[in-house]
Amino acid sequence: MSGGPSLLQQRQKKEGTTLDIRLKKINKIYREGDIVAGVVVIETHGVSGEVQHQGVTLTMEGLVTLQLSAKSVGLFEAFYNSLKPITLVNNSLEVAKPGKFPGGKTEIPFEFPLKPKGNKTLYETYHGVFVNIQYTLKVDMKRSLLSKDLQKQVEFLLEYKSEADTEKTKISPLPFTIAPETLTNVKEKQNVPQFKVKGRFDSSSLKITNPLTGHLTVEQCEAPIKSIEIQLVRVETCGCAEGYAKDATEIQNIQVADGDVCRGLSIPIYMIFPRLFTCPTLSTNNFKVEFEINIVIVFLDDHLVTENFPIKLTRY
Amino acid sequence: MATYEWYPKRRDYEAEKLKEVCAMEAATNHPLKTIRVVEMKTAERRGTPSKTTPTKASPMSDFIDPLSMCDPLSAALDGSHPLSVSAAQAGMPTRTKNLQNKVSMHGDKDYNNLDETFEPWVVRKNAILTKYTTSEKLSITTSFLSSSDKERVIIKTQASSTVTDKVKNRLEQLDDFEEGSVQEMLNLTQQDYIKRIDELNQALIHAWNLDQRVKALKIAIQCSKLLSDISVIQFYPSKFVLITDILDTFGKLVYERLFEKAQYTPKGSGVPIRLPENFTPDQVSESAKETCRNWFFKIASIREMIPRFYVETAILKCYGFLNVGEYDEALRRLASMIRGIGDPLVAVYARCYLCRVGIIVSSGTRDHIMPCFDDFLTTYFQVQGDSVQNTLAMQKLEMPRYLTLFSPALDWILQCVAHRAPENTLKIVLQKCKEQCNSALLLNSILSAFKPEFISVRATECIEMIRDCEDMGFPKHLLHRSLGLCLVLAAPPENQRLTVLNDVWKVILKLKNPADYIGCAEVWVEYVVKHFGNKELNTVLGDIIKHMSPDRAYEDFYAPLQSVITKILCHIHDFSQLFSLDKFLPFIDMFQKESVKIDVCKSIMESFIKHQAEPTNDPVIINALMFVCKTMHDSVNALTLEDEKRAIGHLICGFILKISFGRDFEQQLSFFVESRSSFSNIDAVLIQLIQSVNNLSMETRKVVKGNHSRKTANFVRACAAYCFITIPSLQSVYCQLQLYLLCGQGALLNQCFSQADAFFKAAISLIPSMPKMMDFDGKVRSTETFLMDYIQNFVSTLLTVPDNPDSGVLYLLRGLINIVQNYTWDVHSSGKVLVYLRVIAILSASCQEVYCYRVDKVDANDALYGNDPKFLSEARSMCSTLVDEVLSQLKLLSDSDSLKKQGSLTLELLNTIISHGDLSQPSMVTLAVNLWGLAQKHGQTDSKQKMKVLDTIRIKSSSENGSQYRDLLNQLPVETRT
Prior knowledge:
The complex is a heterodimer. By secondary structure, chain A is mainly beta. Chain A is about 5% helix and about 55% strand. Chain A folds into two domains: about 5-160, Immunoglobulin-like, CATH 2.60.40.640; about 175-315, Immunoglobulin-like (Sandwich), CATH 2.60.40. Chain A contains three helices and 21 strands. The longest helix of chain A has 9 residues, at about 5-15. Chain A is elongated. Chain B is about 65% helix and about 0% strand. Chain B is elongated, with a radius of gyration of 42 Å. At the A-B interface, helix 1, strand 11, strand 16, strand 17 and strand 18 of A face helix 7, helix 9, helix 11, helix 12 and helix 13 of B.
């Protein structure tokens, strides 16, 4: 889905000079060891003609940013103790020495080898609430005092290579039964209507590019059902030896049944993992990213029961 | 100006005729043929005129020119008739192809790999919309119809550039409408609701055109969300139609956009080109695929299930950009996804939509259809469940009404199941039906979905199933109706036919509600008509009358009753058989409402005219149809539209033409008399009657070979009298004039002199009342040209009419001249002069010893007066007066504006003199020379016309006794010729 030319871009156009990075790969997905190639595009509009500048540099950066949640460590600490970001890659190169660009469009090609800094591992791109793993390319154009410096940043995505360090999925079907007896955190069991939902996930260990599949059957249920939902939850853990914070937040919620479904009919479970917001399950010294699935059954009176299943995501 | 004596030229017509006869030559070539270029095989045959049969004429095509059957021209043309050739070139195959093209242009091209047995959705759509309506208040939940400010804010924030931001932003937008900004519009009437939905459709297209794809998607989502709402359940099918229309639009927009984007670069060429229509996924560019995937990712993240299902299904076609075989996979997944929909009605419509899209994107894929149907069967018991019952109780809807809501969706699903399916499929479906849920609802859809041939073979089995099935409130009479529809199309085996009828009719007989009853009877009547005889039909009609008569029930069911008539007329073309049914006319009597009755009469007459090939004199038919026609005729009043009148007139004329008593002319005449008294209000019918009577008298003449006996003479006089009485009752003066002349000629031919006289007199006295302007084919024009033609025709006829001994010499002509003289001609018209010139010509002709033409067995004035000098001088003096009159008219035309006209009329007079005047008389020559001078005088005369006159004189002067013409030529001062 491509949005039209945004208002911001239009404004820049009027000003005279625009700076842009265009990556060769359309989907912007790279693996360790790949060459990130593309062009820096400098475009001048209007009558001004050529552009004076004090040098153009290009920087590749990979960062893990961690944040403590206010809920788990308290507001005060959350504010002060935000953890130091971890740099995974940091390279820069000079694209052009100080000088002039002629009017019109100038394209300067570049190539960056995608190599980690030191002995760091390159984790997959992930956008979470408390953990963020992000790779960017940034181009800076220094200019004289009179005109503003120009900057442009694009994100590219990182995926694990197929071989080596990554784990392979092992298919392990996960059958389940949800009934009043299986619920753990209910205080007054007598308020829960009689019901029995059986089903299974085809595997608890999943390739991230494949959908979560499975099925469930409402075998019996006294109360009318309003909805059955599959919730994808991320569990992010930040911190180190002196204390850590663990938080679970919802990524997405997919309804698989709407209304009082037919009893005894097997209903498919199907969910695609959203890109960027999920990554292969990750566990390091400083932080962890894990995922869980909740099955939520909502009754007509808006009471709901939930059952939780941890899952493991892998790239291959 | 001095008075000029007129001297008619003596003429010997026989000699002139002999002189003008051309040497005859065999026509070997058609004059039209040589101008044409033909690039066909038939062109080789051009020179061979031997092939004269019209059937052989166009051997290269099946096309038969309707003209060519009787048209001697086309026979001579030897198959290369310009019309038939172009038709042949177009040819039948191309024509059907064009038709198909047109259909596919119409947006249905997706259906083009389905045959015509597959009824496209568009056809059903309107039926659903008209059937499922409501007067309840509806509500819409949306954020698009009112708040526009919010949208703008969102678009601005979208400007942030990183991928994540964009995605986040969009997801937020998606959530946005789920939480805030949504408004519920309550209390909408159905009209308002439809309007709103249309607005949403417009908003979607608008947003798309403004590149606001997210907004477009949101609209699509919100629309599909409406489909989970079953608050006004009887409107649900219509709502489904309206909303899936929007979704179709959305799907098309997405597809077209991707298609445009998916340009590909063929191997060996650097230039990207558009995808071909039948592309394969590997031709699609990577960026297009990425965009396409993005769409599906986006949709996969829609929280709610029903919108997720509908929107994905809407853009299902886009899977074609990704991988081969993606359709089948997706269709199967979506089919099983529907199981998650709790409400059975919502679920069945979701299945319907899936099948509908499925059959378009890949009509070969059927894997999802049967599971859809199976799932429906398994979940069907839910309609008895508490939640459905609660809904129905809340909305005060009865079970039978509720069940009929399923029909459109189920019909469609079964149509997909049955499409091109072997007979075995029906067997399986029936078996499943028997085992899992033998419900009336289902059976009904099966009956309407599968091929009638398959059903009819199992007619008895079906009847049993109908009897045994649990109705759960679904009306069983609908089943009988559906079965009837099948059996009408395909007959059951010969030996079962009667049992089937007996079994079914027994049930129908017991239906108490007239609506239910007539619904079935209407269908089964056709079965009876098709397969059984009069007795059965009569019984059935009687039964219908019996059921429909109490409490005047028929008043509410005119449409089905009318359809009964239509069906009977479709199959029974033997009208004497039809009218001899003693229940048929009583049946017609049930149509008491005037307009309906007229429609029925019309359809009877149309059928009669179409199918009654031979003329008939069957008293049963005549009586019945007389009644029918009289009913139609009596409906015509001052307020009737012109078209309606014309249509009725046409039908009645058709009836009159079909009645013939053969040689019994008197009977025929008395039929016409009766018809006249019955149909006196419609001009067209009266004209037809007059023509028919004229025809009758001419027939009589033919029979007696012109020698009337006393009896036949009386008869033809009666015919003339009939016409004479009838003509004045016509509205149109124009028609009256025409008919008077025609009847006069007819009477003259039959030697009814006084009658002919009366006709001519009536015509002459009617001329002044001819309106100045008249409506010809919808255009108002002056009647003058017509009147001139008419008078010229009239004058020519008068040459054959002998004078009435009781009146003066040439009194008819005199009368005519008087009328012409007093007629108020248009100010600028030359009509009067031209008419006078014709009269001079005819007077000159009547001075001849033997007339130029005559009516067989009628003595004209030549025989009557035997060239009596008194008669001649009378005629000549009339001519002289007329010449004077013409000259004085010419004088009036001497102002500068009308000089040209003066010149042309002068030459006309000169022409008349040359043709009919005696130029050996010096006064005639003087007149001619003067006229020539007058024509030359102002130099405004058309030189071509002048040349023609001169040429005529020259030709005449070159003949053997053309001395006087030579003299005249010498006296004419000729301008220098160039």
